[in-house]
Amino acid sequence: MKTTFLATAALVATANAFVARTSLCCFGLSVSGAGATTGTVGQLSDGQNRVGGGLAPASYCIDSTGAITDISGRSCITTPPTSQFQCDVGGPSEPGFSIGCDGTVSLNGSSHFYECPTGQNNEYNIYVTAPGGQGGCVPISLSASSCQTGCPPPPAPPKTCPAALTGSYQYPHLIVPVSSTSPNTAEGTSYNGTVSPTTSSIFNFDIPAAYAAQTCSLIFLLPQSSQLQTSAYSLSGSGAIDFARLSGVATQGTTFANAPGVAADYGVTTVAPGGSYQIATFACPAGQAVAFELKSSGGTSLNYFQDYNPSP
Quick one: CA torsion of 188, 111, 143, 297, rounded to 10 degrees? Predict the structure, then answer.
């Protein structure tokens, strides 16, 4: 099992996983997340979108620009400066929302939202960013009840890894798991990569200065278990994993709460035993350290020993 950084000149075109629209499509919203108040999203009479408190489910519609309106025709936005998600009369809707093939709602490519207590009737407001100074906020995901296309099944696994690593490559020099259920706990370094609905892993790579002026690729290899001699893994769920390059590197003190932000989200790749995946290519950051994060999508759980030996 490897998450590998490899110098290469190859480029790969990737498919857009979001739904393209030519007309309105209407849906309801629900909230999920570890430790969160979950269920359908409702509305107050002034258009605030909330979860909890027994509010009746609200209905929304999305257009081809990713702009959302509620069933009353109000424009849905994330209000500055708090980034609260609500629907108002009179102004334009905010574009950039999308519904993934599995129903996951994103804004400008990010599916990360927060719920924060209002202090009223056990109801929670929804935000893009947790407001500073407010306690009780929990990371959540938003899911649409319709308008998704359905994710394609994972590809049939090849009999062998189709792209064995050749030439110079790097393996992670630090792996740090972070958990949304313990956002302020530093788990420290790990020999395993762990991905679950509540835990993601950050991988640091140290890129040699000799890689200057070269193109690098992020490669993920998942051999068949029968091919492994010094490693092992467990995989359940859809196999969907979100890969992202971070704006900084992890340390042994990194937690879910203080982890570096996302510099480039490479989207979701569905992995299967026997697969080899080129996640992204970019100019090698020669002489620097760089970090990537793997997050669960669609309920995937993956735990594996990070092997530095050549691929089978």
Answer: -50
Distance between CA 184 and CA 254 in Å, rounded?
9
Burial 80-90 (b: 16+ CB within 10 A, else e): eebbbbbbbee
- The rounded distance, in Å, linking the Cα atoms of 56 and 49 is 11
Q: How far apart are CA 124 and CA 37, in angstroms?
A: 8
Residues 6 or more apart from 153 whose CB is under 8 A from it? Answer: none
pLDDT in tens, 188-233: 888 888 999 999 999 999 999 998 998 888 888 888 888 877 677 8
pTM above 0.70, yes or no: no
